[in-house]
Amino acid sequence: MTDTALIVAAGRGIRMGPRGTLTPKGLLKINDTPLVARSVNLLQAKGVSRVRIVTGHLADQYEDIFGTMPGVELVHNPDFATTGSLRSMMTGLEDLSGPFVLLESDLIYETAALAPVLDGPSTILVSGVTGSGDEVYIWTRDETIFDTMSKKIDAQPRAHFGELTGLSRFDAEDTERLKTAARAVLAEDAKADYEDSVIRLAQTRDIACTLIPDLAWSEVDTEEMLSRAIGTIWPRIQERDTQLATAG
Q: What is the residue-wise DSSP string for 89-100?
């Protein structure tokens, strides 16, 4: 069982427009709960005792909400404005070892999404078609082994496996390998995104992909995506979570 989660939440939210200048994407609210707060609640309910949030843009707002919350640590990336999500991930991983769950901050997802990433070998959670408008497509080799990813659906000549959800798990050995890959990528590009380190890692290490074709989830990068998350995705999540609780 993984007891550590890392939430990358330093981004400036430029695509959110005026709202993004006032509120970090991870603190946008759905059903009166900030996105990151919901992730923290779900993780802690599943037994994850240590949740580290990497802040940057409007970090004081995270401090106000999580500064004294038990089991939550805040780590600041002072270079958030001039670097990408990979630098933020590495800021959070600097003194961490062992397995961890990696999450993007601007996600809303059904509770069942956490099951594949809380235990077992390293895995990247993949969904079916979302039509969100900002998809990151994943290609695999040997059926379910991660190969590469891109926002361009035609980046590979073969059909893609699914879409990146922003939830992944890395076991203890792969955590160290991921750090090594990340350092190499950062040496080439200080503005690289965390996905670039995963692609680099996959060149020397098999990382499984777990596909949930009908997963109810959404990333929130724009006003349109926020409206879709509230009006379309959230009702599905509520229904799925209710079914899961009843079945449990």
A: HHHHHTT--S-E
**Radius of gyration over every alpha carbon of the chain, rounded to an integer in angstroms:** 17
Angle between helices 194-201 and 172-188 (to 10 degrees): 120
Cα separation of 105 and 25, whole Å? Answer: 7
Mean residue pLDDT of the chain comes to 96
Going by the DSSP 8-state scheme, the letter that residue 68 receives in this structure is T
> Across 115-158, where does the E strand assignment appear?
123-127, 137-141, 145-150
And the tokens for 44? 């802690």
Tell me which residue has tokens 């035609």: 154
> Residue with structure tokens 């449990």?
248
| Mean pLDDT value across residues 207-213 | 98
CB 124 within 8 A of CB 170: no
pLDDT band at 20 (very low <50, low <70, confident <90, very high): confident
Is 200 within 8 Å of 174 (Cβ atoms)? no
Q: Please, what sign has the CA dihedral across residues 65, 17, 151, 93?
A: negative
- Identify the residue whose tokens are 């009166």: 32
| Predicted TM-score (pTM) of this structure | 0.96
Give me the mean pLDDT over the 15-36 stretch: 94
d(CA 248, CA 244): 6
